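Why this split exists: single-chain examples teach little about how molecules sit against one another. For that reason, every record in the complexes split bundles all components of an assembly together and asks for one structure covering all of them. Below is a record exactly as it appears in the raw files.
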Amino acid sequence: MSWLLVLPVALPLLAAALATIAYNHRKLQRAIALTALTALLVDAVAILVTVERDGVQSVQMGGWPAPIGITIVIDMFSALMLLISVATVLAVLIYAIGQPGADRDQPVFHPVYLTMTAGVALSFTTGDLFNLFVAYEITLASSYVLITLGGRREQVRAGMTYVIINLLASTFFVVGIAWVYAATGTVNMADLAGKIAALPDGMQTALSMFLLIVFGIKAAIFPLFFWLPDSYPTARMPVTAVFAGLLTKVGMYSIIRTQTLLFPENRPSVVLLVFAGFTMVVGVLGAIAQNDMKRILSFHIVSQIGYMLLGLALFSVAGIAGSVLFIFHQIPVKTALFLATGLVEESTGSTALNRVGGLVRRTPMVAALFMLSALSLAGIPPFSGFVGKLAIVQAGFGAKEYAIVGVSLVVSLFTLFSMMKIWNGVFWGTTEDPALRLAAAGPDARLHTPSLMTAATAGLVAITLAIALFAGPLYRLSERAAQGLLEPTEYIQAVLG
Amino acid sequence: MTLVPALIVAVLFSVGVFLMLQRTLTRVILGLVMLGHAANLLLMVVGGRAGKAPIIGQFVEGEAVADPLPQALALTAIVISFGITAFLLALAYRSWVLTHDDEVEDDIEDARIAQLGEQEFARWWKRSR
């Protein structure tokens, strides 16, 4: 059984090595990547089923017992995140294969993409704080390559910001690990859970806040989000989409994991609530000011992070379950929105609101895909965003945090507003300054989008619809995940034995 | 533990932060390197007193042995930062090739939106007078 838990990391790494060997054989690289990620999806489903049936699963690397060796441990929260991430990564891979030029002129795309998948999987499954740092570095090092792939001028500029800010966060992470080790003498998370609780209060607060800053930079929470809307939009669309879907959520996962597991008696509820509020509001206001689809959506990444933080800040089963469900829905929805934006760019050559127009007649399929994901993001019933937000809002009412719940509802309204802004600008109406391909095609001509790209986007949208459809069972799983996070005895037992 | 390593960590951190706040890319990168060294040295300081090498058979029971874990952690962190620094330098070189300049560029889209905001404000100011 234990090999099942190691596969999410081992399989993509192995495939990355094979894809590197097949350097100049694009078809072979594609076959390797597709096979590996499909197998991974099956594995993720198997893991979820196992965890659902038998509880938390763990395996000690190299056979060294827990506090000494490195532990891979998967509870319900990890299993859910793993499943949705792998599904999303697979959809984006298909999209990238379908996009003319995305992987064709870039022999390193497949190996690096697979390595990033391994990094993300490791961050979700590791039970060791330093190993989490390594997982981050694997993910980030691959993302540095992906974001600058192509080496255009604005990519280099934005990539520089991205690399430097993340490197700074990584340095802080090392410092944080040094402090944690100095205070407790261990970096195993399950072992830390007990040992940190024995520390003086001030020390606990210092460690918890420092780790919050480290992961806050990665998750782009207020006031540490400035790098994100600047750097994400410059990469190629499949890359931006997978970053938007996954990377900030990995940061959010780590915040939830560390704040619940490591600091069970020292809960920074008020701090998190304030940050959640500002993250939501500042993100959505930034989005409203923008005039380009990619930048609007990038600011929405920030805004939506606020909701996840809000659910966590309540530190109740209902709140954290809401957060888990919300992250589960955000990963595919955000990615789908960016993929739809990529289709707009592919067919017209631009994503600027004032250059593109009237696409609802020209590419009705893209318009439909965008509309479905946009409504889902804004949280309109009966779409998946509504279910996630409803869970968080209800938990907020339950905890009598009326102010922040009010803020979150207003932010929802603004989200809808800026989605409508995109809709009006890009899909309805006409435009005075049409993008090149639009002008050449004539006033009412149908535009072509590559069918594989459209299919991949449609697949992701279908996943978001399925989330709404199966919201009941999913919420029960999220609730179990939340219980496991708030009462981590099962997790600790699975690791330490 | 003596005061010296702690002081070195502090100096490295301040030098790193100062360099990071410069506008030139090379200095920013050097600053990051300094910060990385500071963090790695901190890991070593955290390991406590130096002692015999922790190899089974090389020390007797009860003897002071160095803590191997922070050393392993520092080693890993050094390898990672080595690779990333190489990548950053390549990126800085690419930036220099493209712009013939070593300065961090402004975000064009940001500047455009700020300009739009200023125009809007100027118009509103004119009307309201």
